Amino acid sequence: MGLVQDFNTYRSKMNDKIMDSDSLIIKRIFNLDTNAYAEGHLDVKSKELIGLTCSLVLRCDDCVRYHLGKCKEVGFSTEEVHEAMGVATLVGGTIVIPHLRRAFEYWEELQNV
């Protein structure tokens, strides 16, 4: 399996287990997350780009991968994604660079899916 399939399979499996725990708090957090990225005053594309850049600054590789997948789904070009990740690296500083490397690798893999 490749990076993208491995990530999506694991994420789905673990999300199912988490939801099976029947925790009201966790279900509400997941629901809030889903609703936050819905169309509103900002369009979905803008929200996904915000999610991607914040995830890079916060150095959450799983979140970066998730938002890169969504960025592909909503039609961002490689140039747009790279520019956004450049801004995130500027804001986050050089400590973001290892995560940027993995983000570039994952985006590249997404282009082959």
TrEMBL record:
Key words of the record: Oxidoreductase, Peroxidase
SUPFAM superfamilies: AhpD-like
Keyword Transmembrane among UniProt keywords: no
Ranges of residues in domain Carboxymuconolactone decarboxylase-like: 28-105
A Pfam short name: CMD
Gene Ontology molecular function terms on file: peroxiredoxin activity
The name this protein goes by in its record: Alkylhydroperoxidase AhpD family core domain-containing protein
Native source species: Ohtaekwangia koreensis
